[in-house]
Specification:
Elements: H1 3-10, E1 24-29, E2 33-36, E3 41-47, E4 50-55, E5 61-66, E6 71-72, H2 74-82, E7 86-90, E8 96-99, H3 109-119, H4 121-136, H5 147-169, H6 188-210, H7 227-247, H8 254-269, H9 271-283, E9 300-301, E10 309-310
Parallel strand pairs: 1-5, 2-6, 5-7
Antiparallel strand pairs: 2-3, 3-4, 7-8, 9-10
Helix pairs in contact: 3-4, 4-7, 5-7, 6-7, 6-8, 6-9, 7-8
């Protein structure tokens, strides 16, 4: 088979690309070189026996975590971009920098819902309340609650959860601490919690991008390009990452173990479809929407009176013109 034929077979089609809700969660890589060859994207590592290759199912992954010592080539990144897979760069000492790739085929329907809710203070507060109730119960937020009151209520509940988890796992003293400059001095619970939360941010980031939303337009968090990602990731910490971190209080490598367990929990909890559904629910609580399709290429023109109009149409004749002469 020729090289061109192999490349055509490896190229993704719309029918081949899975929805993000059906994706595998994430792949963590460390000390490898990610390249594109004639049959796909693979991770290479040099060994005494030569070059070992592991092929990466990019079209089926929500995100790829690029760990320490990992490099990636431009052709490999181009393939990952076509597949709509998010890349998350993982730094040393628990410091993470995030990079997202948005495929051009995304629609703006969910982005428009997000922007309209974000730009209106009343609707923005309503979204924040829905997020709080998604975490702590449908009747947990008092009527007429303010955002400051929500922050206070959340803080009380999280502190209470820390105390419960510390008692359950026999941790004598615990204080949440995230200090990248003193990473090695932190206790295993803090290391596990920071590692698990970072992976959670990457997974949520991939889901946000797959729906076409903006990671920067948060409803509780603000001032960072990851504000909305932090909003959504907070929905799952009390249920998943906090109990997991306390369970690893005696682990010798809590970060690595947290990543492994989070991957298992994502599968057990079926979290990817849940993240997609939760984003849709907080932005559009009516529930009348169809599942977002990241591969739709519908394009229209905006009109405040007539509504969406078809693109690719010459509207010059509407102004009395009869010819192009």
């Amino acid at each position: 088979m020729s090289g061109n034929a192999r490349r055509k077979l490896a190229a993704p089609t719309l029918a081949m690309l899975p929805r993000v809700a059906d994706s595998l969660s994430f792949l963590y890589t460390e000390a490898v070189r990610i390249v594109q060859d004639d049959t796909g994207v693979c991770a290479q590592v040099e060994t005494p026996r030569g070059t070992d290759r592991v092929y990466i199912p990019t079209a089926a992954l929500a995100c790829i975590l690029l760990g320490l010592g990992t490099s990636i080539t431009q052709p490999a990144m181009a393939t990952i971009a076509r597949h709509g897979t998010s890349l998350v760069c993982v730094g040393a000492g628990g410091v993470r920098s995030y990079a997202g790739i948005m495929p051009a085929s995304l629609t703006t329907s969910w982005l428009e819902k997000q922007v309209r809710a974000w730009a209106d203070d009343k609707r923005r507060l309503e979204v924040a309340v829905r997020m709080y109730e998604a975490r702590f119960g449908s009747t947990s937020a008092p009527a007429g609650v303010t955002l400051a009151q929500l922050r206070g209520l959340e803080g009380q509940r999280i502190k209470a959860l820390y105390r419960i988890m510390a008692t359950k796992y026999g941790v004598k003293r615990f204080k949440r601490n995230y200090d990248p400059d003193a990473w090695d001095d932190q206790d295993p619970v803090n290391k596990a919690l920071s590692g698990a939360n970072s992976c959670m941010y990457g997974i949520v980031h991939a889901a946000v991008l797959a729906l076409g939303c903006s990671p920067a337009l948060g409803f509780v968090h603000s001032g960072t390009q990851m504000a909305f990602v932090y909003d959504i990731a907070d929905l799952y910490k009390a249920r998943i990452t906090i109990p997991m971190a306390f369970s690893l209080h005696a682990s010798e490598d809590p970060e690595r173990e947290a990543r492994r367990r989070l991957r298992e929990d994502l599968r057990a909890f079926k979290l990817m479809p849940q993240i997609v559904a939760d984003i849709q629910a907080v932005l559009d609580p009516s529930g009348g929407h169809a599942t977002a399709d990241r591969n739709s290429d519908l394009v229209h023109l905006w009109d405040p009176h007539a509504g969406p109009l078809p693109a690719g149409v010459n509207y010059g004749f509407e102004y009395g013109e009869t010819s192009l002469e």
